[in-house]
């Protein structure tokens, strides 16, 4: 772990923010704190952090909107904090592009473990430096860009990561649980149906059904990215 890695905590409860700062600095991270959503966005743009811990229920601008604004700018890793155990909050955060979530109250050591797990996953994407190129489709995971017939299409990070993962392993069938583990992590305990939601949105955006490839549902099992043998 680089001791120069900077983490931005956006949390309105000073006790929680201070506790996280204490544990993170012991791990060798540099820490910046903001106590509301507006300040969080300001610190984000000023400090250019390497990682963000983001509370959902924030004064001024809430965590959902902060996450949206950050994702428009770049793909910095984000862990969201929620005081609720509802799967809706978890799924919404992940669909907005968060990399993981932690439910309050939590053990700071769990947050540290999740940060390290997210860094391992996101680092693997950066190191891969691969581009999927097929007729009518190009996916660049490094720049998080996708092009359909030469036209750039905007996909949220998790949708793009899911499509990229399937496209890099053509004609291989994956169960929903396998996809959850690969894209959301082994400790994700939300509903597997989030995979179905993501696949539906991907199909709508990329105009699925090319004669060269298709994102196919395998009834009762899961999904595969099917590539025509002539490609």
The CATH superfamily of the largest domain bears the name Response regulator
What general form does the structure show?
A: elongated
Major sheet summary line: 5 strands, parallel
Ranges with pLDDT <50 over ≥5 residues?
125-129
Kindly describe this structure.
By secondary structure, this protein is of the alpha/beta class. The chain has 2 domains: 6-125, Response regulator (Rossmann fold, 3-Layer(aba) Sandwich), CATH 3.40.50.2300; 131-227, Arc Repressor Mutant, subunit A, CATH 1.10.10. It is 43% helix and 23% strand. It has helices spanning 14-26, 37-47, 63-73, 87-95, 108-128, 157-167, 176-184, 193-206; strands at 6-10, 30-34, 51-55, 78-82, 100-103, 131-134, 137-140, 145-148, 151-153, 174-175, 213-218, 222-227. The strands form 3 sheets. A 5-stranded parallel sheet has the order 2-1-3-4-5, sandwiched between helices. The longest helix has 21 residues, at 108-128. The chain starts with 5 loop residues before the first strand and ends with a strand.
């Amino acid at each position: 772990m680089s001791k120069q890695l900077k983490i931005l905590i956006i949390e309105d409860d000073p006790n929680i923010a201070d506790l996280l700062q204490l544990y993170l600095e012991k791990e060798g991270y540099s820490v910046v704190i903001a106590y509301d959503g507006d300040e969080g966005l300001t610190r984000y743009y000023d400090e250019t952090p390497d990682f963000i811990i983001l509370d959902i229920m924030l004064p001024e601008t809430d965590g959902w909107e902060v996450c949206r604004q950050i994702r428009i700018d770049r793909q910095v890793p984000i862990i969201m904090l929620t005081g609720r155990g509802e799967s809706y909050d978890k799924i919404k955060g992940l669909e907005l592009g968060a990399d993981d979530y932690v439910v309050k109250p939590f053990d700071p050591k769990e947050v540290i473990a999740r940060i390290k797990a997210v860094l391992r996953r996101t680092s693997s994407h950066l190191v891969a430096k691969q581009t999927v190129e097929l007729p009518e489709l190009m996916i660049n995971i490094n720049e998080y860009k996708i092009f359909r017939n030469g036209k750039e299409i905007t996909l949220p990070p998790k949708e793009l990561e899911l499509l990229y993962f399937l496209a890099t392993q053509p004609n291989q069938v994956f169960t929903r649980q396998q996809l959850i583990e690969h894209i959301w992590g082994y400790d994700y305990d939300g509903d597997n149906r989030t995979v179905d939601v993501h696949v539906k949105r991907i199909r709508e955006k990329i105009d699925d059904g090319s004669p060269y490839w298709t994102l196919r549902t395998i009834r009762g099992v899961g999904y595969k990215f099917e590539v025509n043998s002539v490609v």
